Amino acid sequence: MAGIYIHIPFCKQACLYCNFHFSTSLEYSQRMIQSILKEMEMRKHECTEEIKTIYVGGGTPSILEMEQIDALINQLYKHYRIAPTAEITLEANPDDISRQKAEEWKSMGINRFSIGVQSFSDKHLKWMNRAHDAAQSLACIDKIREVGFENFSIDLIYGTPGQSLKEWEQDLEKTFELQVPHLSCYALTVEEETPLFHLIEKGKKEKVSSDLQAEQFNTLVSLTKAAGYHHYEISNFAKPGMESKHNSSYWKGKPYMGFGPSAHSYDQHARSWNLSHNINYMQSIENNLLPSEKEILSERDRMNEYIMTNLRLSSGINSNYIREHWGNEELQRIQDALGKYIVQDLAETTEVGWRLTDQGKFFADGIASAIFKL
After folding, report:
1. What is the CATH T-level fold of the domain 3-251, as seen in this structure?
2. Is-contact 307 368, C-beta < 8 A?
């Protein structure tokens, strides 16, 4: 088993763009933690292998009480076999991080942070309805380093309306100045049912410019490369040896377990997911019922998922893997489908298969869907 994900469905406030499952009400947080602890125990028979990574995400796990996070980590060690060198990541917002908290998290075994910086511009943070400001982002990085954390990542968002190319460059330059070891960068997407979607529909917020996002993505790729980052996945950049082990296991198709409402699990043959409803999730667990649905993946599903995830990686698609799992006919079909993208300089051949070029990475989803087996 590659890893474990724990979903904490609570946030201080709703960001305009967010479509993750969360609540801004903490009144039943302890009941939720007790439910997640019980789910961990109920499912312990599903995994006897060593766990190599743990990721506490959300939502905003850093708003939990210290005792609650400690209970979650202890429960995993009680019922699962955790590797001595396991990567244990906590998602945190800058305004939640103090030196004292960082010390306590470290004492629990947390050894990596994923920090939701999003921007170093107060103007854009306000536009996103973030709870922190730029000064808190700068301060929190100093605080975790003072405690001894050198393995951490920050999230940045680009392509927000009103964000100029120069402002995006300034965000990246600040990141490089801080010597951040890992960087996750996401183009702002407008998902249905988010506050941002409705505000744009009503004309109260400006629409996203795909042309500007493409320009900012190209800038991101060139500047991170010049700064010594490895662009190992479409949205992820790391200094040598600082790649996220947990997320890398997702992209490489390794099995994982997910606990908490809306959390997904995958065993290479089937995918399951918990209810995305806090009350129903808790009631189900309290009644000794697992609140999940399951989908058995067909060979077509597995191949398409391989194509989708591996096109996002710098290593790309491995032709031998395709041949071994799905045969020469499918290998030839994929090769033919990629042909036009190679001509357009959006894809290229490698010693072992194919990968997207820097130019093609911005169109990864479209290219993957075009070569899916229907």
Report:
1. TIM Barrel (3.20.20)
2. yes
